[in-house]
Automatic annotation (TrEMBL), chain A:
Job of this protein: The alpha subunit is responsible for the aldol cleavage of indoleglycerol phosphate to indole and glyceraldehyde 3-phosphate.
Organism placement in taxonomy: Archaea, Methanobacteriati, Methanobacteriota, Stenosarchaea group, Halobacteria
Encoding gene, per UniProt annotation: trpA
Family per similarity comment: Belongs to the TrpA family.
Name of the protein described by the UniProt record: Tryptophan synthase alpha chain
Organism: Halorubrum sodomense
Pfam families, sorted: Trp_syntA
Active-site residue list: E50, E61
Catalytic reactions on record: (1S,2R)-1-C-(indol-3-yl)glycerol 3-phosphate + L-serine = D-glyceraldehyde 3-phosphate + L-tryptophan + H2O
Highest taxon in the source lineage: Archaea
From TrEMBL, chain B:
Name of the molecule in the record: Tryptophan synthase beta chain
CDD domains (alphabetical): Trp-synth_B
Compositionally biased residues, Basic and acidic residues: 1-29
PANTHER family, per database record: TRYPTOPHAN SYNTHASE, TRYPTOPHAN SYNTHASE-RELATED
Quaternary structure and interacting proteins, as annotated: Tetramer of two alpha and two beta chains.
Role: The beta subunit is responsible for the synthesis of L-tryptophan from indole and L-serine.
Source organism per UniProt: Halorubrum sodomense
Length: 298, 434
């Protein structure tokens, strides 16, 4: 077990230099292509890969990822196929599943759930079957954007039981008292939301990012910054500013969307994803070097 | 004691009745409710909870006094409880109508919209956003925002915009911006998701006026408390007019705000049967393959799950994906329902019943041609229920007329023309058939 989490693989991803944490929607635009895309992220230097399992009502996503989730659902993605994907995809990076709570909550034995509903107890199945299945498929952690710390205890217990990390998002609006509550429950890494709003690639790096990192400095858990990162230069500045990792979603999903719009071959899209990944990873490493050099010269 | 002090005490006492305490502490109704929202929204939810406790529950700065005064002067409250003579005769039981259709704007929605926009002002917010399905909540919010001088943006599904054009014009006339939502099937559930996205980006200066008793705590209890004025009045009026409590209280249920508003003060009266009439659509069967439930009967047919910030009963497939719901009335067309109603149904306190599109249209025409009241298609479900189940009812029934039907005339003409509604006039003259 890592010091700040359950998964050794996730801990290792942050142990040595900055972590590059890309996100793609599994099954976007179809199962086989997305396998090639996720493997391209891995070749491009991914340390952790966040795999999106689509939910029909993704309230935290901007239009780019929302459309990707719809493409995946339309192509027949289900939790079961998602787990099959995680088992089949060939990558070195640690895999983390990003999805919404209803899918986690509903997964598993329908009959057991009905029986527990009829008895009036809190469903004894709850999130446990999903986490058990995810662990069996090699998933190392979960990110659940609509599950705040207050509602997370059943999921946290299941994650502890099966050795998964449960990653929480810290927003620019998160107040100090909530920060403590989140940090008591987080494991693996904390997802630092760089700005208010939904996901989506942006051109600039927000002041809110720097403020958030400053506020988190005292907590001993890796800090990965996400929301709006799209270039190597962004990655460099964010890591130079103190981030332990960068999470990139919409900029990569945009590449997949372009592939759909322009009818590009799977190979072409995979190449572009790999190239962008190398740029982002290199940027993160430059940021890390400038930060360590600054520390050494001080 | 001054007049204001007396009123303040009354407000505080009213707010503290036992039946109304449910859900206030932690936002939980048994297993339902809660706060399933992105972290970015949590501080806003906490700020709102604090404001709800101070202004609504404790009447700080006379908030509730101002709310009631504006409901009276701007809204036209109290609305009457009217005996429906011809329906009473038809069903051989005393039928009373709570006339929320006479509230300013033509529906019960203003109770909540006015309360929340006023609360936003007390909280120092500078902008209002809201979702709307049928457009009733949108128009009520737009009216309240104009009345209280707050900039307002309304999200509305594209399909609903096409079904409810007059309401779109009304919102614009009141100075609100209307943003079409094109994702999914373009109805209420997509509009709610889109409004939550806006809120996630603008939460510091913006209040989200949610339109029903759904969403994360404190919305379900707060919206219930604003809408409870319906049952506060109805209960007193019933006692005054008939000398006792009704045997049955009937209200249609989509998200459940008029339902819970109509039930709130009767929940503790165990002798009163509470009947929530849901939209049965074309059938209660579910098409898993297509992800479609051709109804909106989440209390009657739904399963427990998490949607839009709360654990409640939902129309969903076995994976947990939310189904596309359907109803002839766009205001009931929602895959979820308020967590408090889900709880009261499980407790056996509220009986959920489903009335299909055909019966709702019959109800629409029956109230129109026997009582001279054209109801909203949502409301019409309650009258469809009366026709089908009047033999199950006691001898004194209160039905909430949640809204008037002017907004639905085009839809009613079209839907009537498409089927054989026995009690309807010939609609072909309107659809170009002559």
């Amino acid at each position: 077990m890592g010091e700040t989490g359950n998964s050794d693989a996730v801990a290792a991803a942050f142990a040595d230099g900055p972590a590059y944490v890309p996100y793609l929607v599994v099954g976007d635009p179809d199962y086989e292509s997305s396998k090639a895309y996720v493997e391209a992220l891995d070749r491009g230097g991914a340390d952790v890969i966040e795999l999106g399992l689509p939910f029909s009502e993704p309230i935290a996503e901007g239009s780019t990822i929302q459309e990707a989730l719809v493409r995946s659902l339309d192509a027949g993605m289900t939790p079961e196929r998602f787990f099959a994907f995680a088992e089949e995809v060939e990558v070195d990076a640690a895999l983390v599943c990003m999805t919404y709570y209803n899918l986690i909550y509903q997964y598993g034995d329908g009959e057991a759930r009905s029986a527990s509903n009829a008895s009036g107890e809190a469903a004894s199945t709850g999130p446990r079957p999903f986490v058990e299945r995810a662990a069996a498929a090699g998933i190392q952690g979960l990110v659940v954007p609509d599950l705040p710390a207050e509602e997370a205890d059943p999921l946290r217990e299941a994650c502890d039981e099966f050795g998964l990390d449960l990653v929480f998002i810290v927003a620019p609006t998160t107040r100090a008292d909530r920060l403590d509550r989140l940090m008591e429950r987080v494991s693996g890494y904390v997802y630092v939301q760089a700005r208010l709003g939904t996901t989506g690639a942006r051109d600039d790096v927000s002041d809110q990012t720097t403020e958030s990192l400053d506020r988190l400095r005292e907590y001993d858990v890796p800090k990965a910054v996400g929301f709006g990162i799209s270039t190597g230069e962004h990655a460099e500045r964010i890591v130079a500013g103190g981030a332990d990792g960068i999470i990139v979603g919409s900029a990569l999903v945009d590449v997949v969307a372009e592939g759909v719009a322009e009818d590009l071959s799977t190979e072409e899209v995979a190449d572009r994803l790999e190239a962008l990944s190398r740029e982002l990873k290199a940027g993160a490493e430059r940021g890390y070097r400038s930060r360590t050099e600054a520390v050494e010269s001080a | 004691m001054s007049e204001t002090d007396t009123r303040t005490t009354e407000e505080t006492e009213r707010a503290r009745r036992p039946g109304r305490e449910r859900g206030r502490d932690d936002g939980k109704f048994g297993r339902y409710g809660g706060q399933y929202v992105p972290e970015a929204l949590m501080p806003a939810i906490e700020e709102l909870t604090d404001a709800y406790e101070r202004y609504v529950l404790n009447n700080e700065d006379g908030f509730m006094d101002e709310f009631r005064e504006r409901l009276a002067d701007f809204g036209g409250r109290p609305t009457p409880l009217q005996r429906a003579g011809r329906l009473s005769e038809r069903y051989d039981t005393e039928v009373y109508l709570k006339r929320e259709d006479l509230l300013h704007g033509g529906a019960h929605k203003l109770n909540n919209a006015l309360g929340q926009v006023l609360l936003a002002k007390y909280m120092g917010k500078e902008r209002i956003i809201a979702e709307t399905g049928a457009g009733q909540h949108g128009t009520a919010t737009a009216m309240a925002a104009a009345h209280l001088d707050m900039p307002c943006t309304i999200y509305m599904g594209e399909r609903d915009i096409n079904r409810q054009r007059p309401n779109v014009f009304r919102m614009k006339l009141n100075g609100s911006e209307v943003k079409p939502v094109t994702t999914g099937r373009g109805t209420l559930k997509e509009a709610i998701s889109e409004t939550m996205r806006d809120w996630a980006a603008t939460v510091e200066d913006t209040h989200y006026v949610i339109g029903s008793i759904v969403g994360p705590h404190p919305f379900p209890v707060m919206v219930r408390d604003f809408q409870a004025v319906i049952s506060e009045e109805a209960r007193e009026q019933a006692i005054e007019k008939t000398g006792g409590l009704p045997t049955d209280v009937v209200a249609c249920a989509g998200g459940g705000s008029n339902t819970m508003g109509t039930f709130a003060e009767f929940v503790d009266d165990e002798s009163v049967a509470l009947r929530a009439v849901e939209a049965g659509g074309s059938t209660l069967e579910v098409d898993e393959e297509a992800g479609v439930a051709p109804n909106s009967a989440s209390l009657y047919a739904g399963e427990e799950g998490v949607l839009h910030g709360a654990r409640t009963k939902l129309l969903q497939d076995s994976d947990g994906q939310i189904m596309e719901s359907h109803s002839v009335s766009s205001g009931l067309d929602y895959a979820g329902v308020g967590p408090e109603l889900a709880y009261l149904v499980d407790e056996g306190r509220v009986e959920p019943v489903a009335v299909d599109d055909d019966a709702a249209l019959e109800g629409f025409h029956r109230l129109s041609n026997t009582e001279g009241i054209i109801p909203a298609l949502e409301t019409a479900h309650a009258f469809g229920y009366l026709e089908e189940h009047h033999e199950d009812l006691g001898d004194r029934v209160v039905v909430n007329v949640s809204g008037r039907g002017d907004k639905d005339l085009d839809a009613a003409i079209e839907e009537t023309d498409r089927r054989d509604v026995p009690n309807a006039p010939d609609m072909s003259m309107f659809t170009g058939g002559i």
